[in-house]
């Protein structure tokens, strides 16, 4: 392990022969702008919820925590992608690679659990509205939020610890835009049959979460369709539409990436799928939550107005 570096080969970039001289900056600029938007957009959603007492309920609490996780989820990979775009030496140490895998997937796991929790929360709110305040108490909400993060970070520790003990030798080129389990395990100069076990574990976790969310929303839609008033149906659909959109983007791309087992995709398609759940999904999340939700739009406007007032006093 000592002294070994894993070379990043983001093939969508390499195919265009990208270096500073031949055009990598054309990819650097949009990715940098997207990253800044992700950080600022998700932080605005987070602080808009935290600073508006009218949004201090379980649904918006989960949204704010999800947005906060998105900031760190993208920070685990995008800054390294940016540095690789403007550096001729596109390498990462083994320790750096393991840490990137751990934080990226731990944060992703936490988000997946949180999305599942949000689906169950909407199920209880719409299907059992009278019991909702007694079921989804502030204490339970805090426990579910903390539990999502704690479990998301603890569940990967044994896997990362095992990978860190593997001997790496031979070609050390990672054909992906960030360190991921399968590309890294293929660099190990030992039996890689554990890749299949890894795939099964990831598949079970993904399928289990998707089933819970799908069943919750099927039940929710069934109940919404029974609401007699058109206005009531529209309000209920509007509340769930943003959650459903984020769920489809996140789990759709994740499923394409981790539910294919031995199936192989062209390298360019692999990179596009990775970009969707690592970059594009976090990019659209603050847009979805702010545009689809009237209360959130009002809270964001208040937050921005407060910032303007603060700046006026500061100047």
From TrEMBL:
- Protein keywords: Cell membrane, Disulfide bond, G-protein coupled receptor, Glycoprotein, Membrane, Olfaction, Receptor, Sensory transduction, Transducer, Transmembrane, Transmembrane helix
Span-the-membrane segments of this chain are: 25-49, 140-163, 200-225, 237-259, 271-291
Membrane topology, record value = Multi-pass membrane protein
InterPro entries, from UniProt? Answer: GPCR_Rhodpsn, GPCR_Rhodpsn_7TM, Olfact_rcpt, Olfactory_GPCR1
- Tell me where in this chain the G-protein coupled receptors family 1 profile domain is found: 41-289
**Predominant subcellular localization, coarse grouping:** membrane
Tell me the domain of life: Eukaryota
The record's annotation in Pfam families points to: 7tm_4
What subcellular compartments does it reside in? Cell membrane
Query: Which PANTHER family does the entry link to?
Result: G-PROTEIN COUPLED RECEPTOR (PTHR24242), OLFACTORY RECEPTOR (PTHR24242:SF402)
The similarity comment for this entry is:
Belongs to the G-protein coupled receptor 1 family.
Q: Function, please?
A: Putative odorant or sperm cell receptor.
Q: This chain belongs to which protein, by name?
A: Olfactory receptor
Q: Please state the gene responsible for encoding this protein.
A: LOC106803940
């Amino acid at each position: 392990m000592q002294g070994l570096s894993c070379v990043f080969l983001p093939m969508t970039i390499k195919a265009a022969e990208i270096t500073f001289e031949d055009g990598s900056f054309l990819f650097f600029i949009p990715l940098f702008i997207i990253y800044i938007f992700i950080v600022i957009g998700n932080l605005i959603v987070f602080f808009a919820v935290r600073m508006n007492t009218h949004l201090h309920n379980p649904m918006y609490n989960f949204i704010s925590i999800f947005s906060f996780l998105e900031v760190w989820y993208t920070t685990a990979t995008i800054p390294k992608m940016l540095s690789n775009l403007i550096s001729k030496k596109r390498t990462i140490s083994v320790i750096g690679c393991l840490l990137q895998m751990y934080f990226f997937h731990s944060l992703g796991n936490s988000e997946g659990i949180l999305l599942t929790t949000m689906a169950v929360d909407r199920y209880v709110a719409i299907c059992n509205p009278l019991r909702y305040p007694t079921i989804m108490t502030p204490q339970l909400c805090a426990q579910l939020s903390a539990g999502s993060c704690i479990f998301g970070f603890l569940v990967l520790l044994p896997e990362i610890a095992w990978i860190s003990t593997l001997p790496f030798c031979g070609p050390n080129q990672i054909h992906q835009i960030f360190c991921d389990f399968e590309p890294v395990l293929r660099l190990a100069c030992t039996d890689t049959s554990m890749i299949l076990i890894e795939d099964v574990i990831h598949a079970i976790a993904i399928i289990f979460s998707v089933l819970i969310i799908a069943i919750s929303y099927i039940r929710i839609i069934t109940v919404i369709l029974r609401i007699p008033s058109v206005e009531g149906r529209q309000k209920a659909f509007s509340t769930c539409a943003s959650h459903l959109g984020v769920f489809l983007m996140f789990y759709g791309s994740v499923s394409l990436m981790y539910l294919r087992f031995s199936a192989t995709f062209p390298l360019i398609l692999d990179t596009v799928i990775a970009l969707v759940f690592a970059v594009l999904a976090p990019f659209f999340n603050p847009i979805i939550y702010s545009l689809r939700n009237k209360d959130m739009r009002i809270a964001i406007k208040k937050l921005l107005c407060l910032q303007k007032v603060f700046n006026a006093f500061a100047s």
